[in-house]
Design a protein that fits this description.
2 domains; globular; Rossmann fold; 40% helix; alpha/beta; three-stranded antiparallel β-sheet; 10 strands
Length: 291
């Protein structure tokens, strides 16, 4: 008996693949290409957020598809640093989420004082707003001179901006409000100079800062630290990459060290949740509690 010829479905007809499946394939190939050629690994990032950023990048590059963007990035090395700005620079501000910094000042700093020297890792430092927030907090608490702050990111443009410490003047009013709400002991204006519509934070604040390229997706821990702050970064990762990053933080922290994450992030589902306990009323600050 002759089998009936199946009616071809849209899924099987060349040129009629659903757009979302084509986009998923384009995304995978783009991320594989970036990793193979430049060793930047975005394959573990949450795809929905990543696609939003890549769509903005396509608009900026004049590319109609992710495949066109892949071609541009592979054949124009100057395109990659520009693309990284869309993939790695979240919107931030100084003393963002003031209750987080107030808790650090009032509850964590007294414990940090017990160490003869301090090492703090700010992972995913972006343009440096959190770096200067920590430097100012430590200066006001008399700890900056015996502290070393590691500020890391994978975007060279971000690291250059962070090291420069220059921000638009129209952002400073919010910075100042946050600083006061976070328990600031002096006026924020004492830490910067203003000129030509911008402010530059004092060089003395970054004398204890080491800016460094570091990827949570591919690199290893590089120092033992007493505090890690990685806020509003994990939210952009898929679960396996979140687990990898939290594992790096666990391995970097001394026993009893502290980990701060974003207000919308949690360690509840992490593979490493057992290594930490969340401090009561701590605004997502955890203490390493395993041996």
């Amino acid at each position: 008996m002759t089998e009936p010829t199946p009616t071809p479905s849209v899924m099987n007809v060349p040129g009629h693949e659903p757009r979302n499946e084509t986009r998923a394939l384009e995304l995978r190939l783009l991320l594989e290409a970036i990793f193979a050629k430049y060793h930047h690994d975005f394959r573990g990032y949450a795809p929905v957020s990543l696609l939003r950023r890549l769509d903005r990048a396509c608009d900026a590059f004049g590319c109609k598809t992710l495949s066109a963007l892949q071609d541009r990035v592979l054949h124009d090395q100057e395109a990659l640093p520009r693309l990284l700005r869309y993939l790695t620079v979240p919107v931030s501000e100084m003393f963002r989420d003031p209750p987080y910094f107030r808790f650090l000042r009032e509850r964590i700093v007294p414990m940090l004082r017990t160490y003869p020297s301090l090492k703090i890792w700010i992972a995913g430092c972006g343009a440096g707003e959190e770096v200067y927030s920590f430097a100012i907090l430590l200066r006001e608490e008399g700890l900056l001179d015996r502290s070393l702050i590691y500020a890391t990111d994978i975007g060279p443009d971000s690291l250059r901006r962070a090291a420069a410490g220059v921000y638009d003047m129209d952002r400073v009013a919010q910075f100042s409000r946050n600083h006061q709400l976070a328990g600031g002991r002096r006026a924020l204006s004492e830490y910067y100079t203003a000129d030509y519509g911008a402010v530059a934070f004092a060089k003395s604040l970054r004398q204890r800062v080491v800016f460094s390229d570091h990827s949570l997706a591919t690199d290893s821990p590089f120092a033992e630290v007493q505090l890690v702050s990685c806020r509003n970064v994990l939210i952009y990762f898929g679960r396996p990459l979140q687990d990898r990053a939290v594992g790096l933080f666990r391995d970097s922290l001394c026993h009893g060290g502290f980990l701060g994450i974003g207000a919308k992030e949690s360690l509840i589902s992490s593979a490493h949740a057992g290594a930490f306990r969340e401090l009561p009323g701590a605004h997502r600050i955890y203490q390493r509690s395993d041996s």
